[in-house]
Specification:
Elements lengths: L1 E6 L6 E6 L2 E7 H5 L9 H11 L8 E4 L3 H14 L8 H12 L2 H9 L6 E3 L2 H10 L6 E7 L6 E10 L5 E10 L4 H11 L8 H8 L7 H7 E3 L5 E3 L16 H7 L14 H32 L3 E5 L6 H10 L4 E3 L8 H14 L12 E5 L2 H10 L3 E4 L2 H13 L4 E4 L2 E3 L8 E5 L4 H12 L8 E5 L3 H4 L7 H5 L5 E2 L17 E2 L2 E3 L5 H14 L3 E6 L11 H10 L4 E4 L2 E4 L14
Helix pairs in contact: 3-4, 6-13, 7-11, 8-11, 9-11, 11-12, 15-19
Bound molecules: fe (ii) ion.
Fe (ii) ion binds next to α6.
Length: 589
C-alpha cells in the first residue's frame, strides 16, 4: 500500500512516502525550493518522493493531509467572532487566508495530483505529531506527549501508544489543552517580544536564556495559570495572538516586562536592557520547563510506562527535554528527528497506515536520513570546471585526509548520502570543525554562519565516548541520537571543548552510533588519533537565512561563497584555492 503524507500551509511544508507500512523517503519543501521555512503546497517535495519511490500518482492508495483544515478554519472563525469588534481589522485577512487555499485542501490535492477525492484523508494535527513521535521510535509501549503552537484546536495532548504483538497499533490521546492556551504560543510570544522571528527563532530564545537568570519567572507565572488537574491556562489579557494577526503580546505584557526588543537592536549584556532581555528569555524558559516537568510527571504516574514519546515543535527545546528526562520519572524520552510540522507529513502517513487502514505494525528504520542523496561525481565535475583542487579518494584515504584538515584548524563542509529530515544536521549535511578553540567558533560565526555571538555550536562524538566528555544521565543517550537535548560538558573538558560549550557549560551533543553514519563515525576515530579526542564541532551546512544544503550544487555554491576551506561529498574532496584558513592559536593535541 502506497501512502503519501503532506504537511503544508503553515510553515515547514513537507512530503513523505510510506510503502507497505515503512517510510521510503521524506523531504521538506524548503530543501528543494531553497526558500527557508517554505509553507507553500509542497509540489516539489511530492514530486521528488514519487520519483524516489518509482510511483505515479495513480499508484497512490491514499494521500493524507496532516490536519483537518475545516476544523482549523472553524477555530480561526470562532476566535475572530469572539474577539469582535476588536478583530474587525484582521477578520477579513484571516478569512481570506483561510478561504484562499487552507480550507479547500481536498480540492487542491485532487487538482494538483489528479488523485480521486475519496483517496484524500485527513488526520488530527496532534495525531500526526503523536504518530511521528511514537511510530518512528524503537519502543512498543510508551506514553505520548505532543505540544506546539496550535493545530486545529489542540495545543497539547497526552496519551499513550501501543504496538501489539498481533500487529495492531493503538494511539490514544486522552486529554488535550486547547487554543488559546498554548505553551508554544507562550514561547513564540516571547520570541516576538525579544525581536526574533516567530516559528523560526525560538531556539535563539533558548540560547539567550543561558546568559540570563530567571528573575522574572513570577511575572511569567502571571501569564500561565496552573489548574488543579495539572494543566494550565494563559491569562488572555497579556496576549493578542488570539484576536489579531499583528502583535502577539498586549500592552499589559509590556507593562509587566518593559519595552520590547527591536529586531535589529544588538543584545549587549553590558547594558540594563540587554540583561533584561536575557533574563526574560531565562524566565520563560524556566516556566516552560517547570510546566512540562509537571505535565510529564503526571503522565508518568498515570501511565506507569518507562518510555515517553514527545512530538510537536515544543519538543525541539533541548533544555526542557533534558529536564523532562531528569525529573519526570520516565526512563527514556524519544523525540523524532523532525518533531515539528514537517515531521507531520510522515506522522500523518504512518497514522493512516496503522490506524485508518489497520495495516500491521512494521519496524521503522531508526535514522533521520530520508532525503535526496548527494552525487559525488557531479561535485568533482563542477569543481574541476571551476578550477578548484579536486581529489577522488577511497574511503580510508579520504577520512585520513579530512582528519588532517580538521586537525590543522580548517573548516569542512561534509555531505554524505541522504539528507536529514528535520531541522538538525546529524552528519550528512554538516559543517565540521575542531571543537577546541574559540578562534574556530568566532571564524564560523563571522565568516560562515553570519550569526549572533550568543548562539552555541554543537558537538558530535561517538556513543562509546559520550560519557567521558558529557554528563548524560541514564537513559539520556537516546536523546542525543537526534541532538534533542542539552547536557553539561564535564567541567574538566570545557576548556578543551571551548568552541562547543555554551556559556552555562552545556552542549547540545549528538552521540553517533556507527551504524547511523559510518563515515562520520570513522572520521571521529581518525580525528581522535590526531587530537586525542573523538569530538568535532558539527553545525548545519548552510549560511544564515538559507535552508540546509541539499544537493551537491548547493553545497558547492555555499562553499564558494563563505569561509569553508574543504568540501567533501562522497569520495570527492575539494580544497579551496587561496584557502582562507589560518592555523589555530592553540595546539589541538
Ligand atoms: Fe504542530
Amino acid at each position: 500500500m502506497n501512502i503519501l503524507g503532506i504537511s503544508a500551509h503553515y510553515h515547514d511544508s513537507a512530503a513523505a512516502l510510506v510503502v507497505d507500512g515503512v517510510p521510503v523517503c521524506a523531504v521538506q519543501e524548503e530543501r528543494l525550493s531553497r526558500r527557508k521555512n517554505d509553507a507553500s503546497f509542497p509540489l516539489a517535495a511530492i514530486e521528488w518522493c514519487l520519483d524516489r519511490g518509482g510511483l505515479e500518482t495513480t499508484d497512490l492508495d491514499a494521500v493524507v493531509f496532516y490536519e483537518r483544515s475545516m476544523l482549523k478554519f472553524e477555530r480561526i472563525l470562532t476566535c475572530a467572532l469572539r474577539a469582535f469588534p476588536r478583530s474587525w481589522k484582521t477578520f477579513p485577512h484571516a478569512i481570506k487566508n483561510s478561504l484562499g487555499e487552507k480550507v479547500w485542501v481536498r480540492g487542491i490535492i485532487s487538482s494538483h495530483l489528479g488523485v480521486p477525492r475519496r483517496k484524500i484523508l485527513f488526520t488530527d494535527h496532534h495525531a500526526s505529531h503523536a504518530a511521528a513521535a511514537f511510530l518512528t521510535a524503537p519502543t512498543r509501549r510508551a506514553a505520548i506527549l505532543t505540544a506546539d503552537g496550535v493545530g486545529e484546536w489542540a495545543t497539547l495532548t497526552v496519551g499513550h501508544g501501543e504496538r501489539h504483538t498481533n500487529g495492531a497499533t493503538d494511539i490514544t490521546l486522552q486529554r488535550e489543552i486547547r487554543f488559546p492556551h498554548s505553551l508554544g504560543m507562550l514561547y513564540s510570544t516571547f520570541t516576538a517580544y525579544l525581536g526574533f522571528a516567530v516559528n523560526e527563532d525560538e531556539y535563539k530564545v533558548m540560547g539567550l536564556a543561558a546568559y540570563g537568570r530567571p528573575t522574572m519567572s513570577d511575572q511569567v507565572r502571571k501569564l500561565v495559570h496552573r489548574t488543579p488537574d495539572g494543566a494550565f491556562t494563559l491569562a488572555p489579557e497579556y496576549f493578542e495572538y488570539q484576536t489579531t494577526a499583528g502583535r502577539s503580546y498586549s500592552s499589559r505584557f509590556i507593562d509587566l516586562f518593559g519595552r520590547p526588543r527591536h529586531a535589529y537592536e544588538p543584545i549587549d549584556l553590558e547594558t540594563e536592557d540587554g540583561r533584561r532581555f536575557a533574563d526574560c528569555a531565562a524566565s520563560v524558559q524556566h516556566v516552560l520547563e517547570d510546566t512540562l516537568v509537571d505535565i510529564t510527571r503526571a503522565l508518568h504516574r498515570g501511565t506507569g510506562l518507562p518510555d515517553l514519546c514527545f512530538g510537536g515543535g515544543v519538543a525541539l527545546n533541548g533544555v526542557a527535554n533534558a529536564r523532562i528526562l531528569a525529573e519526570s520519572g520516565f526512563e527514556r524520552v524519544f523525540v523524532p528527528s523532525a518533531p515539528g510540522d514537517a515531521g507531520c507529513a510522515m506522522g500523518a502517513a504512518l497514522y493512516a497506515d496503522r490506524m485508518y487502514f489497520k495495516n500491521p505494525d512494521r519496524e521503522v528504520p531508526d535514522h533521520p536520513f530520508w532525503g535526496p542523496t548527494v552525487d559525488a561525481g557531479e561535485l568533482a565535475r563542477v569543481a574541476r570546471e571551476d578550477g578548484q583542487n579536486v581529489e577522488e579518494l577511497d574511503d580510508h584515504a579520504l577520512i585520513e585526509r579530512v582528519a588532517d584538515e580538521l586537525a590543522a584548524g580548517r573548516i569542512v563542509g561534509w555531505m554524505d548520502g541522504a539528507s536529514e529530515f528535520g531541522p538538525r544536521a546529524l552528519g550528512h549535511r554538516s559543517i565540521l570543525a575542531a571543537p577546541h578553540s574559540r578562534d574556530v567558533r568566532d571564524r564560523l560565526n563571522r565568516d560562515i554562519k553570519y550569526r549572533e555571538d550568543f548562539r552555541p555550536f554543537a558537538p558530535v562524538t561517538t556513543v562509546d565516548d559520550l560519557d567521558r566528555y558529557f554528563e548524560v544521565p541514564a537513559g539520556g543517550v537516546r536523546l542525543t541520537r537526534f541532538m534533542s537535548a542539552v547536557f553539561p560538558v564535564r567541567p574538566e573538558w570545557r576548556e578543551r571543548l571551548a568552541a562547543v560549550t555554551h556559556v552555562d557549560g552545556s552542549a547540545r551533543v549528538q552521540a553517533l552510533d556507527r551504524d547511523m553514519a559510518p563515515r562520520l563515525h570513522a572520521l571521529l576515530g581518525a580525528y581522535e588519533r590526531r587530537s586525542g579526542m573523538p569530538v568535532l564541532l558539527n553545525t548545519s551546512f548552510n549560511v544564515a537565512g538559507e535552508p540546509i544544503v541539499n544537493r551537491v550544487l548547493e553545497g558547492y555554491s555555499t562553499f564558494r561563497r563563505c569561509g569553508i576551506d574543504v568540501l567533501v561529498a562522497g569520495a570527492t574532496v575539494v580544497t579551496k584555492r587561496l584557502a582562507s584558513s589560518r592555523p589555530l592559536t592553540e595546539d589541538v593535541a
